[in-house]
């Protein structure tokens, strides 16, 4: 079972529904984690920029930030995996720039972020290939085309 706490902290009309967020998160978790809790917080550019600057040293807003939760060693199998912070305006602008439906890009950002919460990364090229392959497979199962394919 997956529990997703959705926090909409911005005034943006194009934010997906709670049901869409849950579907995308569950799709990323399927076969990887059973009992899971996470938070998805949708923010404006100012909040994204402040968090990106504080935690990553980058003074600009970004599409998605992942904050994995590390359970204490004495609590095995704790369901909370962490928090995602998604900037609505960045995601929407990227969708326009990449000429793709906004819902497809939102889905990709949720799946990408959840995979980060599960420990996947893309710093090394070999890790990026693995993570991107998983994302492509999950998105394909949702009838969403490869987000890395050049237009």
Automatic annotation (TrEMBL):
The keyword RNA-binding does not apply. InterPro entries: MetalPrtase_cat_dom_sf_prd, YbeY, YbeY_CS. Its cofactor is Zn(2+). It is found in: Cytoplasm. Gene3D superfamilies: Metalloproteases ('zincins'), catalytic domain. Binds 1 zinc ion. It comes from the Bacteria. Its EC number is 3.1.-.-. The keyword Hydrolase applies. Single strand-specific metallo-endoribonuclease involved in late-stage 70S ribosome quality control and in maturation of the 3' terminus of the 16S rRNA. Belongs to the endoribonuclease YbeY family. This is Endoribonuclease YbeY. It comes from Litoribacillus peritrichatus. The lineage of its organism: Bacteria, Pseudomonadati, Pseudomonadota, Gammaproteobacteria, Oceanospirillales.
């Amino acid at each position: 079972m997956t529990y997703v706490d959705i926090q909409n902290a911005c005034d943006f009309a194009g934010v997906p529904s709670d049901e869409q967020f849950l579907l995308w998160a569950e799709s990323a978790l399927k076969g990887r984690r059973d009992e899971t809790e996470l938070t998805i917080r949708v923010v404006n550019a100012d909040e994204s920029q402040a968090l990106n600057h504080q935690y990553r040293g980058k003074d600009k807003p970004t599409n998605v930030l992942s904050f994995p939760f590390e359970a204490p060693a004495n609590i095995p199998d704790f369901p909370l995996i962490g928090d995602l912070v998604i900037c609505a305006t960045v995601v929407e602008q990227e969708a326009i720039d990449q000429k793709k439906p906004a819902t497809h890009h939102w889905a990709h950002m949720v799946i990408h972020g959840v995979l980060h919460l599960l420990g996947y990364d893309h710093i090394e090229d070999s890790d990026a290939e693995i993570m991107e392959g998983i994302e492509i497979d999950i998105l394909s199962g949702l009838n969403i085309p490869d987000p890395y394919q050049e237009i």
